[in-house]
Amino acid sequence: MAQHVEIMLTEEQVEERIRELGEQISRDYQGKTIHLICVLKGGSFYLCELAKRITVPVTLDFMSVSSYGASTKSSGVVRIVKDLDEPIEGKDVLVVEDIVDSGRTLSYLLPLLKDRGPVSVKLTTLLDKPDRRETDVKVDYTGFAIPDKFVVGYGLDYDQKYRNLPYIGEMVFD
Ligand code: IMP
Ligand code: MG
User: Fold this and answer.
1) Minimal-distance CA residue to ligand 1 atom 7
2) Is residue 69 predicted with pLDDT exceeding 90?
3) End-to-end CA separation in angstroms for the chain
4) Structural domain that includes position 27
5) 81-113, pLDDT tens digit by residue?
C-alpha cells in the first residue's frame, strides 16, 4: 500500500510546546529531583528535548515495552522488553511517552512502577489521542491532543521508519 506523510505539527510548534512544558514541570518540581523514565523507542526524541528544558536536577532511565510492529492497530499485548537499570524507590518519577492511544501500555506500566515504592509517579506524553482511549489513564502533562490519525515523526514510527522526522506528520494511506 502506497503512503505519504503530511505535516500535522511543525518542528517549531513542537519545540515551542516542549519549552512550555519544561517550564511548567520545572515550576511544579521546584526543590526536587525528577527521575525521568523514557518509554523506548518512541519517547526518546521527546525525552531529549524535554530534559533540556527542565531546570531542576534530572536523572534518566529507560524502559522498553512491546509495541505495534508493522500494523497500525494495538495488539493489546504488553510485555517488558527492557526493564529499568535502577530502582525507583524514594524517587519522584515522571514517565515520558510519545503518545497515549488506547491507554493499554500505560494501564499496565503505571501500576507496576507504583508498586516499586517511588514517592510519586506522574506521566507526560507528547501526543494524546483521547478519542481512542479504552482504559482510564491520567495524563499529567500533555503536549498536544490530536485527532484519531496515525502519526509519525519525533520518535513515532510506522514499521520502524520515520522516527527521525523533526515534525509530527500524518501517515496518509493512498
Ligand atoms: P496504547 O497502548 O494504545 O496507548 O499505545 C501504545 C503505543 O502505540 C504508543 O506508545 C506508540 O508507540 C504506539 N502508537 C499509538 N498510536 C500511534 C501512532 O499514531 N503512530 C505511531 N505509534 C503509535
Ligand atoms: Mg510508545
Assistant:
1) 67
2) no
3) 7
4) 10-149
5) 999 999 999 999 999 999 999 998 999 899 999
Pick from 97, 99, 109 the residue to mutate for probing ligand 1's pocket: most ligand atoms within 8 Å of its CB.
99
Nearest-CA residue for ligand 1 atom 10 is: 99
Residue pLDDT, tens place only, 139-148 = 999 999 999 9
The answer as to whether 76 is a domain residue is: yes
A 10 A CB-CB count for 110 gives 18
CATH number at residue 23: 3.40.50.2020
Distance 141 CA to ligand 1 centre (A): 17
Residue 4 has pLDDT above 70, yes or no: yes
User: 14 — phi, psi (to 5°)?
Assistant: -65, -45
The answer to whether residue 167 sits within a structural domain is: no
72 within some domain: yes
C-alpha 100 to ligand 1 mean position (Å): 6
| Selection from 52, 61, 54, 152 nearest residue 99 by Cα | 152
Number of domains in the chain: 1
pTM over 0.85: yes
In a domain, 118, yes or no: yes
